[in-house]
Amino acid sequence: MFSALGRLASRRPWFVIAAWVVLAVAVVSLAPTLETTQEESEFLPDHYESIKAVELQEEKFPGATSPAALLVFEREGGGQLTVEDQAAAGRIAEELGPRLGEETFVQQVVVVGPDGEPNVSEDGELLLGIVGLAEDATGFDPQAFEDAEEMRTDLAELAEGSGLEVTTTGSVPQGLDSQESGERALAIVGIATIVLIVALLAIIFRSVIICLMPIVVVTLVSMVATGLIGWANEAFDLKADSSIETILVVVLYGIGTDYILFFLFRYRERLRQGADTRAAVVHALERAGEAIASAGGAVIVAFLALVLSSLGVFKAIGPALAIAVAVTLVAALTLVPAVVTVLGRALFWPSKKWREEPEAARFARAGTSLGRRPGSFALGSGAVLALLAVFAFGFNPSFDFNSSLPDDVESTQALETFQDHFAAGASEPVPVLLQSSDGQLAPDALEQFRTDLEGAEGVAQVYPGTPSEDGTTAQFMMVLDNDPVSDAALQDVKGPIRDQAHEAAPEGTEAFVGGTPGIFADLQKAMVRDYTVVFPVAALVIMLILALLLRSLVAPLYLMAAVGLSFAATLGATVIVFQHIGGESGLIFMLPIYIYLFVTALGTDYNILMIARLREEAREGKDPRAAAAEALKHAGPTIAAAGVILAGTFASLMLSGNSLMMSMGFALSFGIIIAAFVMSMFFTPALTALIGHAAWWPGHADQKRSPGSGSGSDAGSSDRGAEVSAGM
After folding, report:
1. The whole model's pTM is what?
2. Where is the composition biased (Low complexity) (predicted)?
3. What distance in Å separates the CA atoms of residue 586 and residue 300, rounded to the nearest whole number?
């Protein structure tokens, strides 16, 4: 199949290129825009308590006002607010309402509390205004963010000359700042990724055209992939997290460049043997195609395993990344060979170094040492992985997406100012819904429920219940002791508060605790469930791919065990850097999923390249230790180059200024380095050398081939030289 693709691309290159261009234009013209969400509740299924609370609130209290934004009023230069200042704040809020009359997310603007008194802090230095969320508005759509930006402009005009400074925070302003931060991060990451890839390719190939080719190819691929993802999200009503666009840039450029490298190393080596351009393209795709397809298949399967998740964020991210990799894979097997055919030997301009065979002396020495002492290499590399893996048990998940906002944005600064003067939980009272199945709720039962709920650990205050129109449901607003998005609030809600609410509910009624901490508590429960489903399924399917590729039942077992150890080591290293050294209370809850999928799938790519090369050497008649030594000598340069480029692209996420992206960038880049330079380069070949012939049971694919059997000695030593850089 791969030789047929090579012949098609080499004989009709302009046809293949034109087909890709037409496809890209059609997709860009017709596909819907890729939309994302930051609303955590959209990530959860309906059977969780927090979602039941949201649905009951919408049904029984359709006109209820949820806070869309908080207005923080303080004197310019600080100090206590005077009566005149409070009156000025009231005037600003009153005049702001009509200005926002046509906005989509605002229902009303108030600066007084439930008791009718101004929302002034105990020290008298701050006054709080609340912008209510309009009915049927989510506050997480693009229009709401535009409205929030206009609201800030209006507030600046209204506050001019009043002596007051007004800043905004809350869900919608935080969403606006997150969107703007994400756009900046996308630009920074995109530029850094491109610069890094160009620089590394320049060092490896010393060719201007090769430096630019991945940029052009991946740009075309990204147009197609983004459009297809938009269609998929629309067709299956998938809710993509706002970080998906930044991650897509890294995945497309990183993996795309890796696959281009796998092909180019083979193509270059065949040219060195005297083949013309078309013959070299066919040969390169025939030899590298299986590795590229197997590697891509492992990545796609790993991402598709996320459809088994109960969380909408993973259900959307999984197919999105799978589509991106699938399009990249097809491009690597069709578009890249076609472009290379058109360029011919001009591809390497202006360098002439491509004609010279590299010595790979360092990898030769390392391979010789590994072949002599495989036990020492296996023990040493395994010990490094195991030591780091111990720290993975200290991982503390965080569920607050807004905590990833930079410190210098307005919503973060306004929230910090608010929390300095008000109770931590006052920024977002938590709704508790009490529903009766036996008719209307009695007033004395409501008061008793409020009293019991107020006695729960972690509760500062509970406002009297508000009955619904039919009297069957009551809503209580609860102020927590801790910040509603903190880990402490999550622990309080999922433990003593929910327990107390459920126990205090009168006979014939049911209580539902919602709000942000309720959503976080349910996210944690869903996450634990997903770990027990997604991880094993992804591992089993990748093991099946390895078994089919290697025709062995033994090798896939220890290869996947090695990948699992690399995953734990990566998570442990991230915990050390961010929790122990950086002082972070926790890391975003989705981080282990990302680490597992990327390290498992991409680590498997490098294992495939190394073990396939080791098998090739064994087929030449070498014993297991000699085969491992030669495999490291020849496959090492390819894995090193691919690993450095891919790790570098993931590391560019650390430049985003977003704590979520920074931790993810470190984890994924470190994981790729571990997978390339510890696991696949030393740990797995050393284990294979120790296990020996038994590693290939029952297929025994390492047996020496007869001259007429295919890829063995009939290829001759010159053909083996073609595999120096391809890693087969």
Report:
1. 0.75
2. 706-719
3. 29
- Write the DSSP assignment of 598-635 as a string of letters: HHHHHHHHHHHHHHHHHHHHHHTT--HHHHHHHHHHHH
Residues 6+ apart with CB under 8 A from 47: none
Judged against a pLDDT cut of 70, whether residue 42 lies above it is answered with no
* Closest CA relative to residue 727, chosen from 608, 551, 600: 608
pLDDT score at 337: 92
Q: What is the mean pLDDT of residues 532-555?
A: 85
Count the residues in the chain. 728
| Inter-residue contact 594 to 320 (CB < 8 Å) | no
Residue 691 token pair: 């296990």
3-state SS class at 589: coil
Long-range CB contacts (within 8 A, 24+) of 454-461: 455/500, 456/492, 456/496, 456/497, 456/499, 456/500, 456/501, 457/492, 457/495, 457/496, 457/497, 458/482, 458/488, 458/489, 458/491, 458/492, 458/493, 458/496, 458/497, 459/492, 459/497, 460/423, 460/425
Angstrom distance (rounded) from CA 474 to CA 453: 13
Going by the DSSP 8-state scheme, the letter that residue 271 receives in this structure is H
Contact of 562 with 679, CB cutoff 8 Å? yes
Q: Which of 397, 609, 647, 659 shows the shortest CA–CA distance to 524?
A: 397
Distance CA 636, CA 644 (A): 12
Give residue 708's pLDDT band: very low, low, confident or very high (50, 70, 90). very low
Write the CB contacts of 550 (distance below 8 Å, at least 6 apart in sequence): 556, 611, 612, 615, 696, 699, 701
Q: What is the DSSP string of 177-213?
A: HHHHHHHHHHHHHHHHHHHHHHHHHHHHH-BHHHHHH
Q: End-to-end CA distance of the chain: give it in Å, rounded.
A: 18
Taking Cα atoms as reference points, which of 593, 695, 685, 596 lies closest to residue 639? 685
| Residue with the two structure tokens 């100090």 | 79
Q: Comparing C-alpha atoms, which of 648, 570, 671, 667 is closest to residue 189?
A: 648
What is the rounded CA–CA span in Å between residue 230 and residue 221?
A: 14
- Given pLDDT bands bounded at 50, 70 and 90, which one contains residue 362? confident
